[in-house]
Each structure stands twice: as structure tokens, then as C-alpha cells.
């Protein structure tokens, strides 16, 4: 009986290799977009760095949105996730190393757009691969393991900015090596147990987003993640500038370490919450709690008037938001069950990861120059509060809710 039960669960080995690969995606963009790119933008654009970064983020998000849907759909059509992940890995590394060649903002935007296309050639099929391999009663555990992704991404940023360890010129080379080292193992050694019921085509009359429209829970999950992601995207892109406004003398490595510390604390919390959700068949309860704590942290940031309080409130926000996004990513697979279109549907659903980057720059450009970061954080806290209400009042068609 024990062996039969184990055969109905995905191997821990594959889950760990998969989580490492997901972390490789974070390693590709976290240190690059939070540390290297803002510093490079300041060098290229001078006093217009915040506005220029907004434009880079805007066009990069458009590319990521298109690529996530397109490559998810292509991986559905070809029936292979691995080949797309491998090709995307190669192109991502090549383009990452080409970024320093940009000598003006226009060229930098072009390279970033191409890099976003390549990166999402990895991320789209990789996300769908989890839906092919992980049964529902392990999705909470998967979400907990996915919390390692932003944590390792942040610590890779701390590593490449550590004084005396990696030169500024070598940072992108080290990032490329870390990305390859994280993603290649699952491509070379990942041998997941097959679950035919997870990859079988659903009947044409079955419920699904593409048959009779999205279900109520799917709409609420999509909107809730979108609202939380707007807040996360704002801090992701502008954390460097916010900390600089609070403490102009703060070193890049300290910024990276604070970011990494928040994401590291989130890992055990996400693992415990994910396992609790699996055992109690309450997959969405931890999402409500973590979104509420995230909103509270953002309110504290809005009124922070010194570096210590600012760092503490950011830690609250960063931990809660990471827990929310990690668990949300795995539980999304529960409400998008159609295997034949899983990559495409996840690409559409994961527009919540990229659409905020289309919205957030204009919010920031509109509010920060005239009213400061405090006004921006108050607005973002209100949006996150709406996400709490959406999830807390979600209809419960089954005991899973």
C-alpha cells in the first residue's frame, strides 16, 4: 500500500530539480533587473533614469506577455516542454552577455525586448511542465518549493554585488553561469513519474477557460494575482531608487542583501503553509492571509520615515508577497486543468506577471515625482486589499475552497 501511495505522488527528486530550474529563471532576471539594469540606466540616462527605466520595463513587459502565451502554446502543439526550455536557455544567456554592448537607451530597449522573448521561452513551457507532472495533493508542496526561486534569485544578486568578489564587468557572466547551472540539471536528469490523467485531453464538453469562459474562481484568482503583482512589480523595479531616497549612502550589496533576506525568510513559511494546505485540503486559505499581511507591510512603507523602519516594513511586505506568489503559482494549476492547452492557458493566466509592468511604470511616473513614494505605496496597499477581499469572498463550489 505504501508503494502504491508513493506511485501516486511525484518523486521528491524531480520536484527539487524542478524547483532549482524555476530558481534559475529568477536568477536570470532578479539581479539583472533590480541591480545591474538600474545602475546601467543611471549611467546612460542620468537624471532621467527613473523615466527611462519605466520605458524599458514597459516594452520588455509587452515582449514577455506575447512570448509567454506563444511559447506555452508552441510547447502544447509540439508535445515537448524540454526543447523549448533548452533553446530559451541558450538564447537567454547569449542576450544577457550582449546587454553591455548597448551604448544608448534605444539599443538597450531592443536587447531587453529580445532577452524577454528568450527568457519566456524558458518560463512558459517550464510552468506547464509542472502541470503535466504534479498531482493536486502535492501542489501545496510545489508552491512551497517555488518560494526558493525568488530567494535564490535575490541571493545571486547579493553574490554578484559583493565587494571584492565579482567585478562590475564580470557580473553578467557570473549570472549566466548561475542560470545554466540551475536549469540544466532538470533538462539532463529530470525523469518525472508519468501521470496519464494529468496529460490526457479533456472531453470537449468539459468545463474550461476556452469552452464556456473562465470560471468564477479562475477570474478571482487572476484578478487577485494581478493586483498583488502590481505592488510587487513596483517594488521589484524601483526598490533600488526607493532605498536610495531613504538612505543615499546605502551600498548596492546592502540593497541586494535586504531583498534576499526577505525572500529567504519566506521559504520556510511557504513550505509550512503549502503542506498545511495539502493536508487540510484548503489550498486558497494561505493566499488570503499572506495578501493581507502584504497590504499591511505596504502601509508601513508608505509612512516609514527612517531606514530602520523602512527596512522592517519592506521585510514584512517582501516575505508575505513571496509566500502569496509562490503558493498562487502552484494552485493556479488546479483551476486550469486542460492538458492539451495547458501551456497556452498558463501563458494567458500568467499575463498577471507581465501586465503589471505595463501599468506600474505609468503609476510611478505619475505619482512619485510629485507626491513621493509614500503616495504610490498607499495606492498599492489599497489594490492589495482588494485582492484580499476577492479571495476571502471566493465562492466555494467544493470543499477544496
Portion in beta strands: under 5%
Largest sheet: none
CATH class identity: Mainly Alpha
CATH superfamily (homologous) name:
MFS general substrate transporter like domains
- The N- to C-terminal Cα distance equals 29 Å
Number of domains: 1
User: Based on helices, strands and strand pairing, what is the structural class?
Assistant: mainly alpha
SSE topology string: HHHHHHHHHHHHHHHH
Low-confidence stretches: 205-212, 397-401
Fraction in helix: over 70%
CATH architecture: Up-down Bundle
Write the CATH fold name: Growth Hormone, Chain: A
Keywords:
single chain; 401 residues; mainly alpha; Growth Hormone, Chain: A; 0% strand; disordered C terminus
Would you mind describing this structure in some detail?
This protein is an all-alpha fold. It has a single domain, classed as MFS general substrate transporter like domains (Growth Hormone, Chain: A, Up-down Bundle), CATH 1.20.1250. The protein contains 16 helices and no strands. The chain has helices at residues 2-7, 12-45, 49-78, 82-98, 105-133, 139-146, 148-160, 171-189, 196-199, 216-246, 252-280, 285-303, 307-335, 342-349, 351-371, 373-392. Helix 6 (139-146) packs antiparallel against helix 11, helix 10 runs antiparallel to helix 16 (373-392) and helix 12 runs antiparallel to helix 13 (307-335). The longest helix has 34 residues, at 12-45. Mean pLDDT is 83; it is low at 205-212 and 397-401.
Amino acid at each position: 500500500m505504501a508503494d502504491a501511495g508513493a506511485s501516486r505522488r511525484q518523486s521528491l527528486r524531480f520536484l527539487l530539480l524542478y524547483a532549482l530550474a524555476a530558481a534559475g529563471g529568477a536568477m536570470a532576471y532578479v539581479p539583472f533587473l533590480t541591480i545591474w539594469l538600474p545602475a546601467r540606466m543611471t549611467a546612460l540616462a542620468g537624471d532621467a533614469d527613473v523615466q527611462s527605466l519605466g520605458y524599458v520595463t514597459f516594452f520588455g513587459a509587452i515582449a514577455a506577455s506575447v512570448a509567454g502565451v506563444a511559447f506555452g502554446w508552441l510547447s502544447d502543439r509540439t508535445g515537448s516542454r524540454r526543447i523549448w526550455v533548452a533553446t530559451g536557455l541558450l538564447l537567454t544567456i547569449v542576450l544577457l552577455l550582449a546587454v553591455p554592448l548597448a551604448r544608448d537607451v534605444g539599443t538597450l530597449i531592443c536587447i531587453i525586448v529580445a532577452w524577454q522573448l528568450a527568457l519566456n521561452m524558458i518560463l512558459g513551457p517550464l510552468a506547464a511542465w509542472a502541470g503535466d507532472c504534479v498531482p493536486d495533493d502535492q501542489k501545496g508542496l510545489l508552491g512551497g518549493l517555488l518560494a526558493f526561486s525568488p530567494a535564490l534569485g535575490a541571493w545571486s544578486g547579493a553574490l554578484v554585488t559583493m565587494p571584492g568578489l565579482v567585478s562590475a564587468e564580470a557580473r553578467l557572466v557570473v549570472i549566466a553561469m548561475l542560470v545554466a547551472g540551475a536549469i540544466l540539471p532538470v533538462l539532463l536528469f529530470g525523469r518525472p513519474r508519468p501521470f496519464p490523467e494529468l496529460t490526457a485531453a479533456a472531453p470537449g464538453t468539459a468545463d474550461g477557460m476556452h469552452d464556456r469562459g473562465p470560471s468564477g474562481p479562475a477570474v478571482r484568482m487572476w484578478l487577485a494575482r494581478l493586483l498583488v503583482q502590481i505592488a510587487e512589480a513596483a517594488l521589484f523595479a524601483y526598490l533600488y531608487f526607493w532605498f536610495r531616497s531613504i538612505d543615499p549612502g546605502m551600498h548596492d550589496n546592502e540593497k541586494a542583501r535586504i531583498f534576499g533576506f526577505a525572500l529567504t525568510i519566506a521559504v520556510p513559511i511557504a513550505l509550512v503553509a503549502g503542506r498545511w494546505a495539502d493536508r487540510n485540503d484548503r489550498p486558497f486559505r494561505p493566499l488570503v492571509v499572506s495578501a493581507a499581511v502584504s497590504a499591511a507591510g505596504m502601509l508601513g512603507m508608505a509612512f516609514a520615515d527612517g531606514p530602520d523602519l523602512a527596512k522592517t516594513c519592506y521585510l514584512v511586505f517582501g516575505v508575505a508577497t513571496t509566500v502569496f506568489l509562490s503558493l498562487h503559482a502552484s494552485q493556479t494549476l488546479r483551476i486550469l486543468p486542460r492538458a492539451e492547452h495547458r501551456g497556452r492557458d498558463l501563458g494567458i493566466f500568467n499575463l498577471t506577471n507581465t501586465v503589471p509592468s505595463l501599468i506600474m511604470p505609468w503609476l510611478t511616473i505619475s505619482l512619485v515625482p510629485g507626491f513621493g513614494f509614500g503616495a504610490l505605496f498607499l495606492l498599492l496597499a489599497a489594490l492589495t486589499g482588494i485582492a484580499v477581499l476577492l479571495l476571502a469572498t471566493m465562492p466555494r463550489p467544493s470543499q477544496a475552497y
